[in-house]
Every structure is written in structure tokens, then in C-alpha cells.
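pls design
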């Protein structure tokens, strides 16, 4: 072969021809894939719906429990304070330190109880705090001067001529006159009592706790009935009755007393709770309900323990946990032996019971 022929052979590049076969999904495969995708999406949506509703339900339960605890703490605090600085005469609707009001005093209740208590009101901080701006003297006091703005603030909270105030809990006096601009109150404090600068001045008020149930004709719950209200019954201003906790559905009160059974220690208080059922032990039967507390010796000044049973329910309907609206409500609930709540298919309930020892009743 010549040189040119060799170069021609060497320069030749063979061409390779490939055959590529294109493949796709069959109709059956597409249908199976779509079915699997639908199942996965449906499962994810169901899980999302269940989780979302569970979170809302848990939030409602937490809110319900917080409302219940807050309402109980406020009521318990006032029970402990009831009778502080009692002047020994009726103040408002409080002829005693505690005035029970059983919903049905002659039988089983079909609604919540209420109670009124004589409690002190105070503003302990701020430039207009309710404290003395200067000391008094031991030769007797006819007028006291409070911090600037304090008397005006007390007036807005219900202070009037004829109200009762307590200085440090040591002396209680009736207001015979006042001057809001000068922040003075006219009272009569006999010798040798005297008080120091910044000693607190309490306004004694008859405070009522009651549960307001639908339809709430006076709108005390602001459209959120049922609720628990606190304040001076029929009063106006900051201490007028107003909602303190929404969702409170029931309040049941029972009382244990000392000296209210004539056959026990001749009806003389001996600092031992009266054994109402003569079981020789302290038990639930020693707490009284369905009692008017108006006929001696069953009078409120003999009360030494208060048992508070409170029920709260969710503020909104419970929508269940699935895609449907099936609710997980509350069955029939026996709050106390005195009252049973009917079933509620749309709301969950929580109940709390506390026994409180009175500190100032009967003093």
C-alpha cells in the first residue's frame, strides 16, 4: 500500500449506530400511583385536622383550668379576709361577716349558690395609695389625712358618708364627713389609739360572689355567660359587680360551724367543729347546706370552715378530634350531694373543691 492509502485508512473513523427504545407508564401504573397519592394526602389532611382540633381543645382545657383556679383563689382570699375590721353593725347587705345564700335552702339545689362577705378594700401602691399622710396622736382623732388623691379614689370605689373604714385593722370607725380635694376623712377614734404615717386605711364593703347563667338579662357577663361575678351588689364604680372569670358554671358552698348545735357543749363555741352526725369524727356530714342561717344557734357568726365547690366549662363548643363535628362533652356531673349538673354534649368541664378556714368571723 502506498503512503496515501495508509493515511486514508488511518484517518477513517467508524460510525457507531445505537438503537434507543423509549419506555413510559402504563394506564394501570398511573391509576395505582394516583390512588397511593390520594391516600397519602388524605392521611396527611386527616392528621393535620386531628392535630389542629386537638390543639384547640387542649388550649380550651388550659384556659378553663386557669379560669377555675383564678376564680377559686379570689373567692378563697375573701373568705379568709371576711370579718376583718367588722364594726359589729350591718354594712350594706352584710349583717354578718359571711352571709350564705343557698340556692334552695329547703332542699336540693337546681342552680348555683351565692355568698356575700364583709371584706376590706385597699390600694396599697401608687401616689394615691390609701395610707395616712401623717401620724395621729393618742389624745383622740376626729379627722385623718390620707395621701393626695386617695380619698377621691376611695370615693370612686364606693366611699360615702356613713361608710365604715378600718385603720390598720386596729380601729374601725364610721365616716361622718369627707373632703376629696383635701384628702381628709372625718371619723371618731378614741384615745389612746394612735397611728403612724403610711398606716393603711381600708374601706369595708359587702362583696357578693354569684354565678350568672344564660340568658344574663343585665349583661354582667358581657355576652360570655355563664360567668362568676364579684362586687358590691347594686353598687357602682370600680367595685360594682362585674365578671371576674368566664365559663364558671356552678358554685356550691357548705359550712362547718362551732356552737351551732345546742346539744354539743350547750351550744357554746369550744374551737372544735360541731359533730353534726355524732360520728365522733370530723367528716363530710359536718358541712351544712340547705340551711337558711337565720335562726339561732344556726347563725353565720358560728361558721368556721367554708367548703367551696366550683365547676368551669369550656367557653366554646368542643368540636371533637376528627374531620366531623362529633363533640366530646361532659356527662352528668354530681357537684355535691346538694346539686347535680345535667349532661353537656358540647363542653368539657373541670371541677375544683377547697376547704377554707375563716380567720375573722365571729370576732
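designed seq:
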Amino acid at each position: 500500500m502506498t503512503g496515501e492509502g495508509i493515511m486514508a485508512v488511518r484517518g477513517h473513523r467508524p460510525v457507531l449506530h445505537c438503537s434507543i427504545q423509549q419506555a413510559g407508564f402504563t394506564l394501570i401504573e398511573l391509576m395505582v400511583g394516583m390512588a397511593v397519592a390520594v391516600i397519602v394526602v388524605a392521611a396527611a389532611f386527616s392528621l393535620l385536622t386531628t392535630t389542629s382540633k386537638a390543639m384547640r381543645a387542649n388550649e380550651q382545657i388550659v384556659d378553663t383550668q386557669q379560669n377555675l383556679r383564678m376564680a377559686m383563689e379570689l373567692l378563697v382570699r375573701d373568705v379568709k379576709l371576711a370579718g376583718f375590721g367588722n364594726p359589729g353593725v350591718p354594712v350594706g347587705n352584710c349583717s354578718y361577716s359571711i352571709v350564705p345564700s343557698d340556692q334552695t335552702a329547703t332542699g336540693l339545689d337546681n342552680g348555683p349558690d351565692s355568698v356575700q362577705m364583709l371584706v376590706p378594700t385597699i390600694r396599697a401602691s401608687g401616689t394615691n395609695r390609701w395610707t395616712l399622710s401623717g401620724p395621729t396622736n393618742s389624745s383622740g382623732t376626729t379627722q385623718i389625712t390620707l395621701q393626695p388623691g386617695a380619698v377621691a379614689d376611695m370615693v370612686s370605689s364606693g366611699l360615702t358618708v356613713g361608710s365604715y373604714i378600718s385603720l390598720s385593722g386596729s380601729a374601725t370607725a364610721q365616716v361622718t364627713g369627707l373632703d376629696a380635694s383635701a384628702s381628709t376623712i372625718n371619723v371618731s377614734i378614741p384615745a389612746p389609739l394612735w397611728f403612724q404615717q403610711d398606716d393603711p386605711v381600708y374601706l369595708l364593703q359587702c362583696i357578693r360572689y354569684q354565678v350568672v347563667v344564660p340568658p344574663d338579662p343585665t349583661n354582667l357577663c358581657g355576652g360570655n355567660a355563664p360567668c362568676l361575678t364579684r362586687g358590691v351588689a347594686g353598687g357602682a364604680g370600680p367595685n360594682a359587680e362585674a365578671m371576674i372569670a368566664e365559663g364558671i358554671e356552678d358554685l356550691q358552698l357548705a359550712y362547718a360551724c362551732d356552737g351551732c348545735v345546742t346539744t354539743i357543749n350547750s351550744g357554746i363555741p369550744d374551737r372544735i367543729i360541731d359533730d353534726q352526725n355524732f360520728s365522733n369524727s370530723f367528716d363530710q356530714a359536718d358541712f351544712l347546706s340547705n340551711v337558711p342561717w337565720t335562726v339561732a344557734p344556726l347563725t353565720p357568726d358560728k361558721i368556721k370552715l367554708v367548703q367551696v365547690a366550683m365547676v368551669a366549662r369550656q367557653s366554646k363548643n368542643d368540636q371533637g378530634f376528627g374531620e366531623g363535628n362529633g363533640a366530646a362533652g361532659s356527662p352528668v356531673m354530681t357537684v355535691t350531694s346538694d346539686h347535680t349538673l345535667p349532661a353537656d354534649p358540647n363542653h368539657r368541664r373541670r371541677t375544683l373543691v377547697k376547704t377554707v378556714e375563716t380567720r375573722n368571723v365571729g370576732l
